[in-house]
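Entry 14: structure prediction run for Glutathione-dependent peroxiredoxin. Input pasted below.
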Amino acid sequence: MSINVGDRLPQGSLSEFIEVESEGCSLGPNTFQVGDLVKGKKIAIFGLPGAYTPTCSAKHVPGFVALADQFKARGVDEIWCISVNDPFVMGAWGRDQKATGIVRMMADGDASYSKALGLAAEVPRFGMGLRSQRYSMLVEDGVVKQLNVEQPGKFDVSNAETLLGQLG
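Run finished. Output tokens:
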């Protein structure tokens, strides 16, 4: 069963590679409880099949990086990219995409969070296995306000422009 508008995000954890040590966050991979991160915040979240893959690298992440200031101007506190990869890969990909400090590159290493969302899918092409479907959502204080899930192999509704246009 897939998450829907009006649903609360499921409990679970995601990992992020932290580039600069700060209070409460050590350098390297850190694991966070999603419920703690979303409390009291408006977050634009997009999920995609994999780091360094063609559409994800050429269109999906760059779109959110390019429009980040417009999301912030519309009251979005954070932008997250969730992918079924490890935090080391997500951190390196974030640096490569010039997303550091703009988009939080959140690793769902074993697809458990994608499964909890009901948005996991087998991607047999290139031997990728269990991955995240491509989607975008707006979450306010842990509740899904907008949700755009792509059909397999498509990139029509989960892009940054569509989600930005849905912000009230």
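Notes: The beta strands are 13-18, 28-33, 42-48, 78-83, 104-107, 120-123, 129-132, 135-140, 143-149. Will compare against the previous run tomorrow.
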